[in-house]
């Protein structure tokens, strides 16, 4: 699997709260809401998730040194 990017990490962090507040919400609606939230976040929050993504990428490189992304 590919290492997660900053938005994926943000989504993982925010999704449980969105689902808890909105019972019965579809995954598509969750994605739209989190996308809107991501664009409204201040740069310091987005930078925090970017640093987390960079760390995840470094860990991924250690774990899978031969990995190369090859889209179909």
From TrEMBL:
<dbReference type="GO" id="GO:0005634">
    <property type="term" value="C:nucleus"/>
</dbReference>
<feature type="domain" description="HMG box">
    <location>
        <begin position="1"/>
        <end position="68"/>
    </location>
</feature>
<keyword id="KW-0804">Transcription</keyword>
<dbReference type="Pfam" id="PF00505">
    <property type="entry name" value="HMG_box"/>
</dbReference>
<keyword id="KW-0539">Nucleus</keyword>
<dbReference type="InterPro" id="IPR009071">
    <property type="entry name" value="HMG_box_dom"/>
</dbReference>
<dbReference type="GO" id="GO:0000978">
    <property type="term" value="F:RNA polymerase II cis-regulatory region sequence-specific DNA binding"/>
</dbReference>
<dbReference type="GO" id="GO:0030154">
    <property type="term" value="P:cell differentiation"/>
</dbReference>
<keyword id="KW-0805">Transcription regulation</keyword>
<feature type="DNA-binding region" description="HMG box">
    <location>
        <begin position="1"/>
        <end position="68"/>
    </location>
</feature>
<feature type="region of interest" description="Disordered">
    <location>
        <begin position="51"/>
        <end position="72"/>
    </location>
</feature>
<protein>
    <submittedName>
        <fullName>Putative HMG box protein</fullName>
    </submittedName>
</protein>
<keyword id="KW-0238">DNA-binding</keyword>
<feature type="compositionally biased region" description="Basic and acidic residues">
    <location>
        <begin position="54"/>
        <end position="72"/>
    </location>
</feature>
<dbReference type="GO" id="GO:0001228">
    <property type="term" value="F:DNA-binding transcription activator activity, RNA polymerase II-specific"/>
</dbReference>
<dbReference type="InterPro" id="IPR050140">
    <property type="entry name" value="SRY-related_HMG-box_TF-like"/>
</dbReference>
<dbReference type="InterPro" id="IPR036910">
    <property type="entry name" value="HMG_box_dom_sf"/>
</dbReference>
């Amino acid at each position: 699997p590919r290492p997660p990017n900053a938005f994926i990490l943000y989504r993982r962090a925010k999704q449980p709260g969105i689902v808890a507040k909105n019972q019965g919400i579809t995954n598509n609606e969750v994605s739209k809401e989190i996308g809107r939230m991501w664009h409204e976040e201040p740069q310091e929050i987005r930078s925090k998730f970017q640093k987390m993504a960079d760390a995840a990428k470094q860990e991924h490189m250690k774990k899978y040194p031969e990995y190369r992304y090859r889209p179909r």
